[in-house]
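can u do me a favor
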């Protein structure tokens, strides 16, 4: 949705993308009062989409794989302008797949620059895995009693 391009750089496991956010996305900019800069949630979604694209294009993760963010530690240093190119550099740590569809726990560092200025940086951990594993994990999680119910029955 937001990512249109990503390229490997000369540095191993490092990738670059350029995005232009216009402030008209109906979900991210539903409030016209905030459509005067690139919002923080836009940075998070840019990063998520970019990490999924990188694992698919450069590490062989199937396109229909599930992508689960564990954490995003993001620091905003400047406002980013709408309609002006933002360059994103990603350094990724993606382990080799043990077998097709097996979970892969990954990490990444992202830096966003606009007009030569560092506007944000983030560290993130995420996992990719198959839809079948997702279904199994969700069934197990939803089958657990709520924490309050466990305390009451004890």
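np, heres the sequence
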């Amino acid at each position: 949705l937001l990512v249109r391009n990503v390229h490997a750089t000369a540095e191993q496991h490092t990738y670059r993308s350029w995005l232009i956010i216009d402030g008209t996305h109906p979900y991210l900019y539903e409030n016209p009062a905030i459509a005067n800069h690139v919002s923080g949630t836009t940075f998070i979604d840019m990063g998520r989409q970019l990490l999924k694209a990188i694992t698919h294009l450069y590490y062989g993760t199937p396109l229909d794989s599930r992508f689960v963010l564990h954490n995003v530690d993001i620091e905003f240093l400047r406002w980013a302008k709408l309609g002006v190119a933002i360059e994103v550099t990603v350094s990724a740590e993606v382990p080799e797949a043990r077998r097709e569809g097996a979970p892969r726990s990954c990490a990444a560092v992202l830096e966003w620059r606009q007009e030569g200025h560092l506007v944000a940086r983030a560290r993130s951990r995420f996992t990719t895995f198959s839809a079948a594993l997702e279904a199994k994990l969700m069934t197990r999680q939803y089958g657990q009693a709520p924490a309050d119910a466990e305390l009451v029955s004890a």
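The chain has a mean pLDDT of 89. hope that helps!!
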